[in-house]
Amino acid sequence: MPLCNLTTHAQTPSHTGTTWFADARASQKTLSHLLSLRPALSPTTTSFLDLGTGNGEMLFLLRSEGGFTGPMLGIDYSDASVALAERIAAEKGYSEGEIRFREWDILGREWEEGGEGWWDVVLDKGTFDAVSLSAETDAEGRRVCEGYKGRVLGMVKKGGRFLVTSCNWTEEELRGWFERRAEGDREEGGGFEWEGRVAYPGFRFGGQTGQSVSGVSFRRV
């Protein structure tokens, strides 16, 4: 699909590719949540890392509607997605390097961008969903999704945020995956603590309430 999106955009510039959770307005809700945080995030210095950036839509929104002008990087395993995001950025008039994009497989290569714990806000809009569907195992025999938290934790500054959006996991399940609970987290010098939720419309069925999309904000401590 990323290559198809790139080709279609070249033929029809108004087509900017597929945006995950567009029907739920996830990017706008994520932005609203970020703007509601207190103390407020600095518009000039807050740094953003977007995991599985796709067409870069989340970062463009942070710039254009959020007013954030600090460092921004979108990463994606697909070089075609990166090429599409870079093309859209140029067409929107962003200067080279103002919003950066690069190809990188979060599970396949060691993190090398910005150093350990460099980012104020790390965003995941569907990437953990995709990772958790994989039956692939790592060198220790664990499912690759079990190592995802450790990878993300190393990217976030102490005191920084990790926001994850999912259509496969409930809020409680996401807290089970990411929230600091084990003694080992403390021994490693920190972990994620639940900070809040991103509100999405709910539904009621069979006496139970739920949401088709869950958004959770964690803070690194």
- Secondary-structure-derived class: alpha/beta
What is the CA-based Rg, rounded? 17 Å
Q: State the separation between the terminal residues, measured CA to CA.
A: 38 Å
Low-confidence stretches: 3-15
Shape verdict: globular
Strand order of the largest sheet: 3-2-1-4-5-9-6
Count of helix runs: 8
Beta-strand portion reads 15-25%
Chain-averaged pLDDT: 84
**Count of DSSP E strands?**
9
Main sheet makeup: 7 strands, mixed
Helix content: 25-40%
Order of helices and strands: HHEHEHEEHHEHHEEEE
Topology:
Layout: H1 2-11, H2 26-36, E1 48-51, H3 57-64, E2 72-76, H4 79-91, E3 100-103, E4 119-125, H5 127-132, H6 148-153, E5 156-166, H7 171-178, H8 183-187, E6 192-198, E7 202-205, E8 208-211, E9 214-220
Task: Give descriptors for this structure.
221 residues; alpha/beta; single chain; disordered N terminus
Protein architecture, described:
This protein has helices spanning 2-11, 26-36, 57-64, 79-91, 127-132, 148-153, 171-178, 183-187; strands at residues 48-51, 72-76, 100-103, 119-125, 156-166, 192-198, 202-205, 208-211, 214-220. It has 221 residues and is of the alpha/beta class. The strands form 2 sheets. The protein has a 7-stranded mixed sheet, sandwiched between helices. The protein has a two-stranded antiparallel ribbon with strand order 7-8. The chain is globular. Helix 3 (57-64) links the parallel strand 1 (48-51) and strand 2 (72-76). 30% of the residues lie in helices and 24% in strands.
